[in-house]
Specification:
By secondary structure, the protein is mainly alpha-helical. The chain contains 18 helices and no strands. The N terminus and C terminus are likely disordered. InterPro entries: MFS, MFS_dom, MFS_trans_sf. It is found in: Cell membrane. One of its GO terms (molecular function) is transmembrane transporter activity. Keywords: Cell membrane, Membrane, Transmembrane, Transmembrane helix, Transport.
Amino acid sequence: MTAAGSTAAGPPAGSLRQMLVPLALAQFICSFAGSNMNVMINDISTDLNTTVQGVQIAITIFLLVMAALMIPGGKLTDRYGRKRCFLAGLTLYGIGALLSAVSPGLGVLILGNSILEGVGTALLIPPVYILTTLLFTGVAARAKAFGLISAMGGVGAAAGPLIGGLITSALSWRWAFVFQAIVVGVIVVLGRKVLDPLPPDPTRPFDTRGAVLSAVGLILVVAGILAADDNVWLMLGLIAAGVLLLFLFFRWVRAQERAGREPLLSTSLFHNRTSNFGLVTQNAQWLILMGTSFTVAAYLQVVRGYDAIQTGLIFTAATVGLLISSLAAERLAKRRPQRTLIQAGFVLTALGVIVLLALVTGTPGVWAFAPGLLLIGLGLGLMLTPSVNIVQSSFSDDQQGEISGLSRSVSNLGSSLGTAVAGTILVAGITATPERAYGLAMSVLAVVAIAGLWAAAKLPKTAANRAG
């Protein structure tokens, strides 16, 4: 059964909009979780007797667990059903949030937030994008649906510091996790109305060895980046081991395909040139968003001495910019090619990073951060939706589980790399040479924006959109 057929004979437009609400809220809360801790660095460090690097590690592990398990999570949706995985992921996420709220130390916080919430996210996010692709057909309808989901994801990441700062200042950082658990409870109730257009296939095989090789490989690579400021040889060893495991993973995948068995990830997904460059743009977007969020938030708190609410308020500029451009996604998709929107987004984002470098370094005024963050928000909001739509629409219904897992894995890998790379550069010199460390971290993000612009230029002028 095709998506078009499912939608035509299925629920009316009003029911579809109702089903879109919990899917969009799910993306919001997962993105919120990735950035709201950035404004709690000082509070968590003091309360749990840890350091800035300890909080950075917790945030990075959360993002990395999502990235490492997103592909297996996408495959499990085919076997157990998209709605079932969605609700199971939400339940696990809620448990992790409550555990984080009562954590007595960094170890329990990592277990609750980084592990349980990370695994829960890897289970619930692929169904969000698979169900949206299956339920909404046509360029305009799908652009509108992805526009809302991408907007909620971007707003969750951009508004995470503001909401987290408000909660932390008014109550405690622990209540930010209670807030997550409450939102997850609401999503579970609303999610009961979501329909799955395709039946699960319990006989669908699952590539356990491939899942282990890919997950451990990604974890080792990012762990190596985190070790850069402590031990260069450890960094090189971890990265080399990670690259080796990823190489073995792709060898295993090819061997499985030659033997006629279904691997964790089909190599045919990488035969689509448009999708490949679309994935690169997704990775760059989230790397910049999370890298900027951690770098600016840590700099404001550790160097400038701002508290959680002050830091969160500064990020309002990014949230406003992202909201404006994301909510215009449907109208813009009708008027401009998706490649043009992505290119314009990277130009604005690169300008925003440059403005942050030019106006903030050595400038005492708090509002010096606003213009750059506004430009970054506008740029990211402009391109989040077309990037997702290009990738998802490049494949048929029976490949949506795989491509959704790969797409979300690439995006979350970008998030974890943003926090790991930019954060490691910043943390390494934040006490001795804070201005230099901040400048280097933001310069890396500017280079990523330029690389994303290059990838966007490689997209076809008129990217195809699957209508059914």
